[in-house]
Amino acid sequence: MSEILAFLKTIEDEAKTAIENASDKAVLDSVIYSYLGRKGKLAEISRGLGKLDPQSRPQVGARLNELKKRLTDLAEKKTGILTSTLTSADTFDYTLPGKRAFVGRRHPLMQTVDRIVNIFRGMGFSVATGPDIDTEFNNFDALNTPEDHPARDLSDTFYIRKGILLRPHTSTVQIRTMQAQKPPVRIISPGRCYRSDTPDASHSPVFYQCEGLFVDEHVTFGDLKGVIIQFAKDMFGPRIKVRFRPHFFPFTEPSAEYDFSCMICGGNGCRVCKNSGWLEISGAGMVDPEVFRAVGYDPDRVTGFAFGMGVDRITMLRYRIGDIRLLYENDVRFLRQF
Length: 338
Ligand code: PHE
What we know:
The chain is an alpha+beta fold. It contains twelve helices and ten strands. The chain has two domains: 2-91; 108-335, BirA Bifunctional Protein, domain 2, CATH 3.30.930.10.
């Protein structure tokens, strides 16, 4: 009798160790099978009970049942651990901070483009597009730019091959649009531009412009001013001021550069506006009759205005970004802020 109890104890220790050491579910299943299965060790011992003398049978039987229950409980617990998704349930530290999942969003430049498009849509403009790679004709000739103009120089513009280049401005889309449709025209065209500039805090060889073009009968410089001023107010609020300075562009006459009052310091002067109180946005002017002739419009019948707009500049002012390069490095630590 004590022999058989000692034997059961050995079986118990053996089974416990095997269950505890089971490294995966398959190993555990085979351990369960060999001890608790229908043809397992415990079943075999049960079948031998009949051979025992009748007095010791109840005690051994009870011990056997208890052993079966213990091993079954242990095996169940172990199954739970092995199939749980929290692999080491005992060592998992619930007090550690969780990992934050970040949601993707539009790039700050694209958010600004969306806003610009919205504002101009409200004034009746539609969006036109053109390719980043375009002809020298669309970039310069049709825009009344002389053969020897410095902008055509290899040191300023990226050429793909003779006559084909990465556009240095979105003014190409003025030409493409007027070639494709008759007046009236009222479009804006946001897009990428390329210039052979060395990158620094305010220069990037890739940047964004938004072109504007309005052609109809009796369009005046006053209309141009009205549209730019309305844009400035919608974009930066009613207190903004706009200033036009005389300038020269081959494709507009008269031409101007235009500035917005510095929204960082309210026009009082700060580091961003270099104490001038003004920030340069881009150029504008009345479409030169030569440009109308190049696209087959009659300069005696129609007039128009065109403007450019530095999208990077506007984005930097809108979000107070101090370095244009941040917009092109795609560092998620930066992009997550918008
Ligand atoms: N294309 C000019 C530039 O890139 C801006 C401009 C557009 C000026 C339209 C006048 C009219 O600087």
